[in-house]
Design goal:
Strand content: under 5%
Distance between the termini: 33 Å
Largest sheet: 2 strands, antiparallel
Structural class: mainly alpha
Number of helices: 19
Number of strands: 4
Shape: globular
Strand order of the largest sheet: 1-2
Order of helices and strands: HHHEHEHHHHHHHHHHHEEHHHH
Helix content: 55-70%
Length: 420
């Protein structure tokens, strides 16, 4: 019975409270209890935090920094032990914007008033990062609940809790996995507002652009995946609504998302101008990093084909996506079971002479969520083929939770058709 603004605020507070509880109960706040993911990249964040603690600022604005020892625990130890470090020891990393290091540096300076111990502040930063990730996943689950019911939302969210990759990666201060969900959340909010009001509020487009901009300023890697996921909710609405109107919204969302990416590139370029002292130097650095990431100039994988990259992640890498005690589920069985669920539901609906169009939206969303991770493997052979410890994480932002949620919905749809 609450007014809409109060209801929204109450929902957000409940989401944050549950996210904080989940983080605390599952001990994700501490790297020493549940492990970490990709410790090397966190060097840039720890270096930046430690640099800001000492009142030092290297040229380049937000750029992450590191000392002479790269991709190890040295910078983390310097921060944790509050070791005085000469300003000349820090070297900016010019292949990213480094917004996350600057933001966590600000939070760290606030925490220092209450937590003088570096180890305690490190745990607090991990706790904050994990809580934000759980909150983002809970908001996605609410959107699933609204469309497919509470049971589908529950299974989708449980897949997050049972994912070993996520339970390590969600703490990583460099990758900031909650920022990976921002474009999707912005698109879900756009669809929700459009359905409720009958038209898309103008503020939704800047929100999509801002979400993509923030995501890219924390790292441009995997961006094709998140741009596809940003369109997935609109494709679902297009399949079940006024297709001409939703097609226009899809196009506008695409322009807004690409605009956000362009803005992030612009911020990166300006940082490069500040650091290199010229637009030409910044442009050369920017284009070199981008072309290397998308496999145009990386000699290391010049002989690697797209088929080899896909074989690596569909066949060779067979680590568990979901784990519950001794029970594990890997990629191929998950895909096979989901396809079987679609086939059986289709057969039941056909036999009971029910409309088959009800499956169109979910099927399109599932295909997009399979294509989203694959897009990065194809676009960025150089990054994907080498970084086997990073790429499998993409399945958890698309295919895994969607498959788990849709399997429940497919079973429910088939049972309902039989009963009727």
């Amino acid at each position: 019975m609450l007014p809409a603004p109060l209801r929204g605020a109450a929902t957000l507070l409940a989401v944050l409270a549950l996210a904080a509880l989940l983080t605390t109960v599952r001990h994700n706040a501490s790297a020493y209890l549940t492990g970490v993911w990709d410790t090397g990249s966190q060097t840039l964040v720890y270096g930046r935090i430690h640099q800001m603690e000492q009142g030092q600022y290297a040229p380049g604005g937000f750029l992450g920094v590191y000392t002479d020892d790269w991709s190890d625990d040295t910078n983390r130890a310097l921060f944790r032990d509050d070791t005085p470090t000469d300003a000349a020891a820090f070297h900016p990393y010019t292949h990213q914007s480094g917004l996350q290091g600057w933001l966590f540096g600000r939070v760290n300076r606030l925490l220092r008033h209450r937590l003088p111990d570096g180890l305690a502040r490190e745990a607090a930063l991990y706790w904050l990062n994990s809580t934000l990730f759980y909150a983002a996943e809970l908001l996605v689950a609410l959107a699933v609940w609204e469309e497919f019911g509470p049971l589908a939302a529950a299974f989708g969210f449980v897949s997050v809790l049972l994912a070993p990759w996520l339970q390590r990666g969600m703490k990583d201060l460099y990758w900031c996995l909650w920022t990976w969900l921002l474009p999707l959340l912005a698109a879900l909010w756009l669809c929700h507002c459009t359905r409720v009001r009958g038209k898309t509020p103008r503020g939704c487009w800047p929100l999509v652009a801002a979400a993509c901009m923030v995501r890219c300023m924390c790292g441009f890697e995997f961006i094709s995946t998140f741009l596809i996921l940003c369109e997935a909710p609109l494709v679902y609405c297009w399949a079940g609504g006024d297709r001409r109107a939703w097609l226009r919204r899809m196009i506008c969302t695409g322009f807004a998302a690409v605009g956000g990416v362009a803005a992030a590139l612009g911020a990166w370029f300006i940082q490069g101008v500040i650091y290199f002292g010229s637009a030409a130097g910044s442009w050369q650095n920017l284009t070199g990093a981008v072309t290397s990431r998308v496999s145009l100039t990386d000699d290391m994988v010049s002989n690697v084909s797209v088929a080899q990259v896909l074989t690596r992640y569909f066949v060779e890498v067979d680590e568990p996506l979901l784990q519950f005690g001794p029970l594990t589920i890997t990629l191929k069985p998950l895909i096979a079971v989901t396809l079987l669920g679609f086939a059986l539901c289709l057969a039941v609906l056909a036999l009971r002479k029910k409309p088959l169009a009800v499956l169109a939206g979910p099927a399109l969303v599932w295909v997009l969520n399979l294509a989203a991770p694959v897009s990065w493997m194809v676009l960025s052979k150089a990054h994907a083929y080498v970084h086997v410890h990073l790429v499998p994480m993409l399945w958890h932002f698309a295919l895994v939770p969607v498959s788990c949620a849709l399997l429940v919905w497919l079973v429910k749809t088939a049972i309902t058709a039989v009963k009727e």
